Amino acid sequence: MSGAGAPDFFYREAQRLGYVARSAFKLLQIQKQYKLIKPGSSVLDLGCAPGAWLQVACQSLGPLKSGGNVVGMDIKKVKVPPRCDLRVQTICADVLNFPRQNIRELSPQQKGFSVILSDMCPSVSGITTRDAALSAELGMRALDLAVGKAAISQSPDDDDDNEGGGGDEDSRHGVLRHGGHLVIKLLESEDAQDFARICKPIFHKASWLRPKATRSSSREIYLICQGFR
Known about the structure:
Strand content: 15-25%
Radius of gyration: 17 Å
Helix content: 25-40%
Number of domains: 1
Distance between the termini: 38 Å
CATH topology: Rossmann fold
CATH superfamily: Vaccinia Virus protein VP39
Shape: globular
Order of helices and strands: HHEHEEHEHHEHEE
Number of strands: 7
Largest sheet: 7 strands, mixed
């Protein structure tokens, strides 16, 4: 079971339907409302352990003949879970230090991904402000990987120097295709609102969603960014 607490409806449903974690229902709801992953999409799943989002992403690609691929990355070693087909692969690596050109090479024709999912979360300390700041920083790293420093620097709300390779040409461009979509998990806070203000000029639409499968004790919320400009 993922997270603390007694087994609930979503945990039991995950077991019944063959999902490796209840978190599958979060992405299922995102898919139902926003339809980000389409047949033939190329999907990058950051922080993919234990693999429930890989399962949902794969089934969202449609039948095998539709094509597409799903790449999951996590610092933990993750086996491709049941319900996935040969379009799914996993990489054990720290995505924050993995060369983005190597990530781009995992996409079809090395042209980038049409959907990037970030379910990454820092180790929680219990100190609300600290955890929120760490979550926003992790989200910013995912955004940087997706769209690159060139796009972020054009956002009027961005006043961050974005440490780590500002002059590196590879870091100026991300691995998300134009028109692509990005989903980032954050912890509810003022930091998260600031983060959203940076994202809004970069995408055609950015909206918040707290999936029904989120535990009542959790402060996590998802920013759904649609249509990379």
